[in-house]
Specification:
Radius of gyration: 20 Å
Mean pLDDT: 85
Strand order of the largest sheet: 3-4-5-6-31
Oligomer: single chain
Helix content: under 10%
Strand content: 35-45%
Distance between the termini: 32 Å
Amino acid sequence: MGSGAPSGHADPSGSAGLLAPSGRRLFTGVDGRLTAYAGSAAGPVRWTESPRDGFEGPTVFEVPGWVGPSGIAAGSEGYVYVAGLRHAPEGGTPHVILSTQYQTGRPLGDWRDLGAPTTTAGPAADATAGPPAGAGDAIVAGPVVVVNQVSGSVHVLVSLRYGGIVRRSRTGEGRWGRWKNVTDQPYTGEFTAQMPTGGALQVLAVNAAGALDRWVLVKGGGAELRDRFAMAAADGTGTALETGRKRATYIWRYPGDDSLVAWRAQGKDTPGGVMALGGAGGRGRPGVGRGVIGGYDCTVLAQVGAHGGIEVTAYVTENEGYGTWWAPLADTGRGGGAGDAPCDPQVGTDGQGRLVVAAFDRAGGLLLARQDRTQDGLAFGPWHRESGHARSAAARQR
């Protein structure tokens, strides 16, 4: 499962070769402008809201040796961190690389090579557990990026075929540590990672028996298995959202009827366990975010529904038990109907605090629908296609 989950998955609608990165892909900068990211076979792709009107992009940041998967996250200071995989110069396991966007619309910074996490050592040696002697380990999921919203520390995680889930972390002051185990138990599918404000880094992954395991980092750098529960999860559909201080809610698709379900650790004053979110017949990973509706803090979900178009639902945050009611957004206005429907939705808020649903059309174009505050409840205006001018930023990438 995933988000924080791996990426490199082509969008199920076939949107002009775009790939869906892991984690969030729609961000609001400190200046209130939106930035949307996607992936491609050449490197990250970005659209940036113009200070005047519309969007600039898509800009393709071409990276020599780019393998394809990427993970993206943003910190409270507005920095956007983009991780990917690049072919190793000597062959073998690809290297994990990381770049930073420090300001809306500015180029990505130089790519930092974090190396290939294949050294043979245990957690006590501050490195990873490696593959059997003479064997090359393989990255099977990731990279996933998680940012501590308080300290500014950054964690880049991948899952290895033999060595379990590993991370390499940078402190808020900019110092990088070596690769460490989150767990040396192998998880060969996708995983989801989250670090809620005031809480510890945590990872949810499907184990070999098909159950879900939640690992939480503890003092000293190790991790504890806090939860294990039996629940099927469709690969490539997982995501997570901070829903309270020190609390994360995980969401994925149940393969039985393709509906969405949520899980949260039981709290003293908050409900937990597995909770149904409806949306049966939906496809792919949902977009998820939080915003204000009618004065209430609400969680908003967007998905490709059974009819083929984007549909949304919302509920008061951490009140999943009251049920969800899904409603379709308007069609794209070109060709009309679900056949031209956008896909791979993301949920965010713009500089005015309005909820935004962003998606891609079948030609790889960016579409946005913004909250209509003149209406009661969860209401959106029409889709707007942000055409922009495609360009390459290859010359700035090293």
